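During the no-cost extension, the postdoctoral fellow (Dr. R.K.) reprocessed legacy sequence entries with the updated structure-token encoder. One reprocessed record is reproduced below for audit purposes.
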Amino acid sequence: MFATGVLFFISLAIFMVVLYFIGMLWFSDERNRKHMGLFALAISMSFWMLFNMIGMVSEESYYPLFYTLRSVAVAVNPYCALVFARDITKSRFLNKPVVVALNYILPFASSVMIVTDHLHHLFFIEYRYPTAVFTNIYWINYGLQIAVWILAFSFLLHHFYKTLINKRIFALLVVAAVSPIFVNFLFEIPQVAFTHDFVPYVYFVTFAVFALFTNPSDSFNLQTKALPSIVDSSPELYFIIDPRGVVMDGNLKKHDAFESLDFTPGKTKLDELVDFLMPDGADNQDLRDGLGDHERTFDGIDLTVSAPDRDGGARHYTFALTKKIMLDKKKYKGFIVIMSDVSEYRGMIDEINSQNENLLRLKETAERASETKSTFLANMSHEMRTPLNAIIGLSELELGEDNIDGAARDNLEKIYGAGMTLLSTINDVLDISKIESGKFELIPVEYDTPSLINDTITLNIMRINEKPIEFRLHVTEDLPAAMFGDELRVKQVFNNILSNAFKYTREGTVDWTVSSESDGDDVWLISEVRDSGIGIKKEDMDKLFSDYNQVDTKSNRAIEGTGLGLAITKQVVGMMGGEVHVESEYMKGSSFTVRLRQGYVNDKVIGKNVADSLTKFTYTDKKRDKSQKMLRAYMPYAKVLVVDDVPTNLDVAKGMMKPYGMTVDCVTSGQAAIGRIRNGAVRYDAIFMDHMMPEMDGIEATKIIREKIDTEYARTIPIIALTANAVVGTEQVFLANGFQAFLSKPIDIMKMDEVIIIWVRDKDKEAELGAEAGGPDAPPNGDAPSAFDGASIAGLDIEKGLARFGGTESYIQTLRSYAEHTPPLIEKIRSFGASDLPDVAVTVHGIKGSSYGICADGVGKEAEALEHAAKAGDFAFVSGGMDGFIGDLDAFLSGLTQFLDSTDASDGKPIVPEPDKGLLARLAEACENYRMDEMDEIITELDRFRYENDGDLIPWIRARIEEGEFGEVAAKLSGR
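Re-encoded structure tokens follow.
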């Protein structure tokens, strides 16, 4: 009995220790609760111990009950060990769904069989202490438990073998794992006949050993001791207040500011502490209420505490004070006040605030600088693009005429190409600025792929000039005929890459391959440009795409360029979701491959014929023929007003609108346009308004027309903006200020046609006109070239000129202009020095173009030779050839002037002393009242005569009226 009693109390002690261990782990740290297998193993072992202990002292009638409960604990114990092994080892095998399922199903089935044994006796034949009489089925279940036990501890031992450095400890673990099996085996053998079940005690040792190395007690001790250390080492101050308002704990004494505070944990009141923190002031009660009332929101405050310093003065400390409520199961338990010494940070904050103010000022300065730059770019864009509008627009108009050929057409092509090149340079500068400011936008449209390629070829093939370069184009037949993307930017990318190839290739080949790849709903447009040029050094590859940078500048100093093309290309390609790949070998050539993601339009491809025409460079003629045959609506009923301060731009607009048959009136200022609309004598169908003009710009003029002229006509007349300002956002500015549409200079014919169709065309009036009005393509009235019959002018190809200008009158007018404007140019080049060669090149360039234009090819060639020499800096050639050139030009002008004088004498017009004063008076009145039809009739009448006096008056009047300067004409005529 004594031994039984001792074992009973040992069992009770072990049971209590295990329960304490479980509770300690569960409530000490949330991380420990993740070892669910450890808790399951401890619980099963403790209940094994408990019911075994009770069975020792229970009455015989109760023994079967406690033995059954003890057997259930024993039956589930190996499976708890398996859960423990799965948690510790993270084994893939033990975590397989099948293994996990069996881990729960098998112990549940064993428990059910044990609990219901009194009904079927499949496990126990007879219950008796310390062991029962078992059936064969029990031994099968027992064998399964032993197998599970061995499996679990095999995985555990393998895990510890890999993770433990000390092999002696591993040997201890092996002994601990084997001991319960060995003792249990002895206990189950009837021949040994133990008087008590010692297996639970051995198993307790095993559990303790494995638990120790799974969650060592030192770790727990460290966790429980860490919190005070953390608090003590923290620079933060704190005090804890209970619900009664008593300061229970705190570390205020660690700070110099609180040396004089009489603080005793458990006795000091909150009110005393508040009085120390805030000796006086209205905020004292607010702080007390904010801290003491746990139902009141407390956002925290900053407060200052003063303490004596070593010099007898006072030092001020600033603390940031916050409050944290303590709750236990939603029951108020007090609060913690945390105080952070922010004294040292105040100076830093003041410094930061000062720096922020400086940064803000710098930011405002930078924004002003950026705004100034944008304004400058807008102004420069206008100033440069306005003359370019004339250069490109007029040359494009002349190239569209059928009667221009030979050297004149070549010159016009060069003028057009030079204008486009200069426009490209301007656009590059604007684009990089837009990219830097984040205002660069892509505007995707559906575009024609062959036209895009052809336009690129047309622009770039002129860059070959006289270089011995073979340009070869390779286009795949399966290239989509149409794509969806920003056509202008795609063309810009291709132009930049190709222009570089031509610039940096002195001789050899440039190959351009264009292909595509399908990618779902998108298409990869692939361009590869391979040249045999000078190549790129390896050390220059990294700076190839940087702004304003030209690699190998020493070798390439003679090559023009801003260094922006590739930088813009890289940015634009990136915005399109594409990529640029470069391969190069110095002095052997380069290869640029660009991949651009474009939108899919349809399955139509360009096919073999189009691909062949592109590669043979014959697609250009087809496209030009198509553009020349563009049908324009005939609108003789329409009247439009063009407003521009540059007369040449007015000529361009009038020339482009001429095929529509419209009446095109012109004025050179916004104020004049306002006067026309306010007068209302002529009701225009639309106004084409320039933006930047002196004294009053187009937006101001439009605002006055819309708001100050109180008529429905002024409020509703369509006003279309004409501007050379290409900065992003300009169109939105116009549309927000009373304009209906926007045309950028140089004016695109197709876009202008679209605007005219939308805002000017009136199909009802066209229906009324029917077939009576003819059309823009109606044949001109007979213009017999009688003035040139039998005429011969040395140096002038008259037949070619008549064919080019399509008639005598227009050709004679051009010859008169040439005879009038060329002599002043001659005076500029009669005397010059070596430093004047750039100006000489410009002057002879103008003479060359105009001479080729009138078909004076001999003089034109001489001027061209001088131009090339002047550009090359060959002063000897220019000075040696200038006298002969001026002599030839003077002789040509002399012959031309004699012809023009004889033409004037034989034009058949009656000669009278002076213009009819009555007609001039009527003309002055018509100008004052803006009666356009009457002006035309009077001018026609005055032009029927030649005048002995005031012969220049009528041409002057005609020119002023064409420019819309009606007031100037009226003033001149009224003063006569």
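Confidence is low (pLDDT under 50) at residues 216-224, 553-562, 620-629, 771-785. The chain is about 55% helix and 15% strand. The remaining legacy entries will be reprocessed before the final report is submitted.
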